[in-house]
Amino acid sequence: MSDGKLILICLAGLILNLVGSLVAESLNLPVYLDTSGTIFIAALGGYAPGIAVAFFTNLIKSLAEPSEMYFCSVNILVAILTSFFARKGYFDNFGKLLIIIPTLTFLTGTLDLLITDFLNSTNFTQSVNEFESGYTKNLFIECFDKTFSLFVAFALLKLTPPQIKKLFGELGQKQAPLSEEMKSVVSQQSYFSLSLRTKTLVVLMLSSLFLSFSIALISYLLFKDAAVEERIKTVDGMVTVAVSTINPNRVDDFIKFGRTAPGYKETEEKLYSIKNSSFDAKFLYVYRISEDGCRVVFDLSTGTFEGDKPGQVVELEENLLPYQNDLIAGRPVPPIITDDEYGYLLTLYKPVYDEAGKCQCYVAVDFSMEPLVEYTHIFVIKLLALFVGCFIFIFAIGLAFVENNIILPVNTIAYCARNFSYDSVAAREKNIESIKSLKIKTGDEIENLYRSLLRMTENVLRYLEHLQRAKTQVADMRVKVFVMDEIAHKDALTGVKNKTAYTEDIAELNKKILTGDAKFCIVMVDVNYLKRVNDTYGHELGNTYLKNACRLTCAVFGTENVYRIGGDEFVVILEDDKVSLSKYFVAQFKSEMEHKLSNESLALWEKVSAAVGLAVYEPDKDKNADEVFKRADKEMYENKLAMKAARTD
């Protein structure tokens, strides 16, 4: 079955919602019957198709009744909860299904009533009172509605063939179905580590929130500005009418004689009539404004405040001080919004000019802005109800797309790459088949990555056979190279390192001297009596004598530190911590040599006689290792002369 046919089933769920809603409305039932399709699709295919069905159900219903879109978030939450319960196995049998009813009833009953009350009321407190009074009744209605919807969805699920359920579980995936082992590993990827899934979800969520918040904020600001502008127009019209009732030529008399002035009471009655035309008009007064303050012309009393008498001088209000010069000069001033002990008010001052164009007084109206606060609260509630649903819909669809087109393919590729084994031919072939079985077809860079990995892996396997054959050849070559290196750097007679090795190691010491890392000493060992042994006992025993001298040198200084650089000459190089023990080693060598020489039971070739010279590298004195060698050689020569002087034979 193709994705197109699965989408048709989702459309069937959408139609089921719309038909149920139409039946409930036609029969004037107190229920909605518009979530059966949502529950069915969410339980069958997961949260994404369920959310899509819920969203488009309310979107289509809003064409006839716009307020239906405000309930979109409620039906989307039903889809999310249904998907969650379906994954936990609550739709497997009728008994588990009954556990879902209280949860859905409480959720939809609470949110539906809240949204309904706020939509139908312009007073926040009134909405709360209506919610409390109708909550229990609404829960009973929702309980019946959700029970019916769940039973319908449960019956449809039981009638749905297993192959359709399986295909719905793979809806939207751009690769072949996963094995149970791979599915288990991929599903255990953490949402809390800094994985690609986590980063993508964070970016998607923040983008959706930013978009929704930006649109909501702009809508709120536009609404608030429009509401304030509408309020200003209303007040301006009221003040304009009030201005037309005042005769500017009588203002002086009104101030001087007050209510006894001809025409005062008639004008005052008209002003009261204008003020009482709107419940939100809190105060209406007429002032002549001069440098010494505001002289009262009219000040209408309210139920709470008694108006000031005509001619009385009052101080200019603090919020008008920035416009004092304009008011004294008779120029118009902009509307002023204040929030003080008199309430949240919009104040508008309008000048009254006489025939000569001179301002005689100002008519002012203080208009209550409290209803605007209530309207704003309700608008925010509506806005949240609308955009929560839109946000969840956008996020859910985006999440499903990211999961199927990015996260799942990348995780399965990573799984195959991580578990690829090169141990044997059978294991390599099995891994290749595992990668081929993914069949990723996203049609983008992910698919290119998959195909590149597959080609690279196949190429690697083709080369492995050649590498395996070459491995044996390389091993043989390494053995030969090692043997040749041993021959090139080892003395054939004694087995210690030869002059070639000595020359290379001296070069390394010179490098260390240049970098300031050198710490070493050189010991010269020159074997005595070699010519006498050769002439007296033959070269074979002479070689034995030379080997015995080498053994003693190696036993004291360490074989790895000994070099044979001439016929009867040996050099010892000690580095790092051994340098501090060098004098001890020389003393031990001489002691062992004396011990052998004093042993009368040993033949001459079994004894050892050698001159020894020691020189330690001094950074301030030696420019290279040859200078250290020369000092060691000089000390050895002096030791040899001393040994000759001490001879008695």
Describe the structure.
With 649 residues, this protein is α+β, with helices and mostly antiparallel strands. The mean pLDDT is 83. It has 20 helices and ten strands. It has a six-stranded antiparallel β-sheet with strand order 3-2-1-6-5-4. Strands 8-9-7-10 form a four-stranded antiparallel β-sheet, sandwiched between helices.
Main traits of this protein?
single chain, six-stranded antiparallel sheet, Beta-Lactamase, 11% strand
Terminus-to-terminus distance: 111 Å
Our Rg estimate from Cα atoms comes to 51 Å
- The tally of strands reads 10
Helix content: 55-70%
Q: Which stretches are low in confidence, meaning pLDDT under 50 for 5 or more residues running? A: none
SSE arrangement, N to C: HHHHHHHHHHHEEEHEEEHHHHEHHEEHEH
Q: Major sheet: order of its strands? A: 3-2-1-6-5-4
Discrete helix count? 20
Q: Averaged pLDDT, please?
A: 83
Work out the strand percent: 5-15%
Outline: elongated
The count of domains is 3
Summing up helix and strand content along with how strands pair, one would put the structural category as alpha+beta
Largest sheet: 6 strands, antiparallel
